[in-house]
Amino acid sequence: MLAMVLGFIILSYLLLSRAPPTELSYEIPYSEFNSLVREREVDEVELRGDIVNGKLFVPRAIGPQGQKGAIFRSRIPAFGDDSLLLNLEDAGVAVTVVAPHEAGLFTQILLATLPWLLLLGLFLWLMTRAARNLGRFGGPKELSGFLEAPAKEAEVPEVTFADVAGQENAKREITELVEYLKNPAKFLKLGAEIPKGVLLMGAPGTGKTLLAKALAGEAGVPFFSISGSEFIEVFVGVGASRVRHLFEAAKKSSPSIVFIDELDSVGRTRGTGLGGGHDEREQTLNQILAEMDGFSGREAVLILAATNRPDVLDPALLRPGRFDRHVMLDLPDLNDRVAILKVHARKTPLAADVDMDKIARGTPGFSGAELKNLVNEAAILAARQDEQQLTMADFDEARDKVLMGTERSLAIEPDERHRLAVHEAGHTLVAHFAAHADTLYKVTIVPRGRALGGTQQLPEHERHTMPEEYLQDRIAVIFGGRAAEKELLGTLSSGADDDIHQATTMARAMVSRWGMSEAVGPVDLRESEEHPFLGREMAQPRHYSEHSAEVVDDAVRELLIKAELRASNIIKQHRDKLNKLITLLEKEETLYREQIEECLGAALEKKSIVVVSDNQTS
Ligand code: ADP
Ligand code: ZN
Fold it and tell me: Is the CB of 331 under 6 A from ligand 1?
């Protein structure tokens, strides 16, 4: 397309710039032309607009440097010269009159249409570009399909419920619908009401798309999908049109499933300032609502939508007859993580030392998508090292990579490295000896991502609530690094910056939210609140007295000082063991639970969590 437009431009340029092939002709002043006429030197002339081309009987010196020539050219004044034709007649000159641009009829047409052609070309080019942008989301690549082709795919997916690990609740709710999709007539005959819209809610990567696809795969019906975010950048009106076509296509191949991903990006509450009242968004949303209302209930088209922000959805979407069935997908717990890992490791050969249970315990908070990524990273690492199987070390490396970014080689000075080892060993020692802290998983002084080093503890069980003693121990563990630096090196470093921040945040929550301070009591005195639209904490106007604020500050400080004292007591008490641990850590760089226990002696019976990572603060 672009080539065609370019071709036009080049062609017209050539035509326009092609000078009429004549003999060498000299340009002479109009006055000189007139006197030549009067002297009857001129044989013939051709009048072409305000140009006169003429020929003399006998060559004369008419060139600018006095060259001789018979062919000349001159310019007639724009206001015309009434006497010119008479003079020419008097002098017996043969006169031909030619329309100014007769020679270039095509050129003339071209000249008239060129601006339009250019505009059209530009428009088409923009359209293809926009279409290609749509293609980025799996939309239509062809211009002709720009407005119509709505769905990424309308095939029956190959995934089934067997590919969805865990999520038992969600699966149970969805399974009911399989029967209906397989045989809608049976249900319709008995007048059964089938839900039209099902809203899948859950964090990114929890398998919402996967579950919707599995439903289609299980029932053997085509799956039409579209994503809310596709509408945001497109021309106004296109979103609504695509929704219309999508539903039309789905109805044609009913029974079928329509899946709308990221519903919140079109389905935000209309008319709110946040998100900037996007016209296109509203039109699209209205179209979706209209389509859903237009169903008579006999179409056997099921609409599934996914969102991770159900709180911002327009209430109109959730009304009866629309997305009135809600299915919640949670981040996987320990057992589900094991199951998901197994699903994704089905096709990878595993070494004997691979313990899925242990990997799952090391990945609290990972979503299904992240676990899939973990297995994939491990496979890549194994392949790079020419291994035949995936080993536990591969998984461990992959986990750190997914968690914190790639290992980096950072030049650390020997004394800085020593301080780092002291700091991390301090965390480790306190975690080991504090009764309520989580079991240690590993400690490392290998820098990775933004973290300089890290001490990782693992929960034996998932934690849903955190008891007071546990929180106190957790703060003590966080202060362990600092306390060790102070005790062994006598000075502090800026490396503990993030530790202090974490500890303070936790202590403040204990005091102002969870009522864990005698002095403050069970009052909610928090300073910020999660904002439902922005999804992050926002400072609130304070609704308690100056005095309360002071009491909170004092209570927080007291809690922190107590925890630090506990940390430094543990360190003083086990100073020899700490030194042993530091030496070992500097030698090995990374120590695992068995090595730590061997070095420090068996730990107390531990109940349970979490990663203290020392982030750089630059
Ligand atoms: P969402 O739509 O919730 O953001 P997806 O369905 O796109 O998440 O999940 C991305 C990928 O993560 C899936 O293709 C699948 O491979 C993997 N995954 C997520 N949850 C699960 C699960 N419960 N079982 C197996 N794989 C899962
Ligand atoms: Zn630290």
Answer: no
In whole angstroms, give the CA distance from residue 232 to residue 234.
6
Cβ atoms within 10 Å, residue 466 = 17
In the residue annotation, 377 being an active-site residue is answered as no
Task: Give the architecture (CATH level 2) of 18-98.
Answer: 2-Layer Sandwich (3.30)
Residue tagged active-site, from 280, 370, 377, 424: 424
Residue nearest to atom 12 of ligand 1 (CA): 369
Protein residue closest via CA to atom 6 of ligand 1: 207
8 A C-beta contact, residue 16 and residue 60: no
Domain 414-529+545-617: give its CATH architecture.
Up-down Bundle (1.20)
* pTM for this prediction: 0.55
Find all residues with CB under 8 Å of 519, minimum gap 6, and list them: 551, 554, 555
Q: How many CA atoms lie within 13 A of 594 on its CB side?
A: 0
> Could you give the CA distance from residue 223 to residue 201 in angstroms, rounded to a whole number?
19
CATH of domain 161-329: 3.40.50.300
Crossing angle, helix 414-433 and helix 593-600, to 10 degrees?
A: 80
**Residue 310 DSSP label:** G
User: Which phi and psi (to 5°) does residue 132 adopt?
Assistant: -65, -35
Nearest to 74 by CA among 89, 57, 56, 53: 53
Per-residue pLDDT tens for 522-564?
877 776 655 444 444 555 566 778 888 888 899 999 999 999 9
